[in-house]
């Protein structure tokens, strides 16, 4: 609890609340201040609830908060029976109710803001079925549902874009980069076209290249189809294996069984399924519907006060008293023949419960068997994917075991060879170490001899000179080869450049003419574009004016149509009322008594007379009861006194019997002593 309060105080001291509380000041808040603080937190989640609770009634505040908490899917701690206590605590501002609620709200404020925002648009407005009979209301409701679905889709796309992490700047950069790549590709294609045009039979070569591309695409599609057909073949083989397995199981079952046993199994299965369909499932469905109805009724009830709880408790006590009275009456009317029926009922109920339990066990066993079959299929498919082979039969498994045995012998031989090679490797490694040691000793002796002769470092210098001379000779050879290659490459490049210049000279001349023509066409295109823009602007303005006019006419038409429908409905209502009034007048004026009896006035007159006669009889009965009340109460008092008198006599008689028995025991004990 202390950690919870510490968390609440820390969150309230931060943005956007900034309350500057500590544990003592927060714990000393009154109920009204706690409710206002809770309302401020709810107002931060949903701005519609940012109000002053002093300006509204407590029932309105509780109803508003409960509706928002229902939208936010808050579950109060405790069982369902504690909901009334939660509502009462919310109305009174109880700390055990407000503190957990504040802790829950402050833990997930951002998530609850999002949920409250979505609830403004996704909580569906229920329209009664009788209103949906009108076309206008039905069309509006359908448009409302379509807009709700469109909002759901747009919100999902928005969330996906937020998760993807793309920003407008990155998108613009990508677009600009793609445009640059497009321009480069266009230029490259133009260059390639110009280069290809100079080649002989370029059209035929392009056609051949196009056919090659089409054939490659066809090859890819055929490969994809081949892969799909392979997967279909694999699935078909799996289905065939399952069918063969089922066939084998059925053959095994048929081989050891008779038609009578098969018919018996089928009858048992049919009886079990019929029991599930006719008895078990409907009973479970009814229980689920009843529980759902009770839960909906509990949810639909408004906030309950203490007076409502006391009234409900009194009603429960009255119903319990009535039940006890009925049980006592039944016990008084108990007959011996009912005991047999009750015994049979108990046995039937026990059998039905056992039957339900066995049916549930059988259903669970079937579900477990189906789950195990699915797992087996998944394992077989995984094994096929990993190993690329299907499940082996018995003969294939034997062949596989024989192969493993031959491989095992081969493995043992190779293992022996590896052991021999390892031993030889160890010997060679030891020989290498000994040679290295001898080499180091010889080097040390050589250095000592060089020092004695006064030419220390001679051997090392000789080795370095030999190595450097070898490297220098290699570098000289590489340089010579590189220079030869470079000279040949320069000659080739010069020849290629000369050829390209000769071939591009006529193309450059044509290009200059085409550039001039392109400039002229560009100027003409700009002029035409200016004319087109001005004409399009004028047409766009005319179109917008016409659209506004059409929109106004459509709205006026819809308004007139709704007025017409309203007047038509009112006319039909008035016609029905007028027709009823005419029928009433006709029945009332009619000389036929049967017709007059059908008149509403006659019916109400007859009902009034019946009620007056009934009231008169009830008043007479009340008078008789009042007159006989005093003597009856007196007689009841006399019977109670008589009952007390008889009870006293019964107690005195029992006491006398007990005293007489004690005296008799004492006398018998005295006689025994005298005899002794």
The CATH class designation of the domain at 1-123 is Mainly Alpha
The total strand number stands at 0
How would you classify the quaternary structure? single chain
Percentage of residues assigned to helices? over 70%
**Proportion of beta-strand residues:** under 5%
CATH architecture of the domain at 1-123: Orthogonal Bundle
Task: Enumerate the spans where pLDDT stays under 50 for 5 or more consecutive residues.
Answer: 335-339
The geometry reads as: extended
Total helical segments: 17
**How would a crystallographer describe the biggest sheet?**
none
Distance between the termini: 82 Å
What integer value in Å does the Rg equal? Answer: 52 Å
Give the helices and strands as they follow along the chain.
HHHHHHHHHHHHHHHHH
Mean pLDDT: 79
CATH topology of the domain at 1-123: Actin-binding Protein, T-fimbrin, domain 1
Which class of secondary structure composition applies to the elements?
A: mainly alpha
**What is the H level of CATH, i.e. the homologous superfamily of the domain at 1-123?**
Intraflagellar transport protein 81, N-terminal domain
Describe this structure as you would to a colleague.
Among the domains are: 1-123, Orthogonal Bundle (Actin-binding Protein, T-fimbrin, domain 1), CATH 1.10.418.70; 484-589; 596-621. Helices cover 88% and strands 0% of the residues. The protein has helices at residues 2-13, 23-27, 31-45, 58-72, 83-92, 95-107, 109-122, 135-164, 168-197, 202-255, 259-300, 306-332, 336-387, 394-453, 458-589, 593-597, 600-675. The protein starts with a helix and ends with a helix.
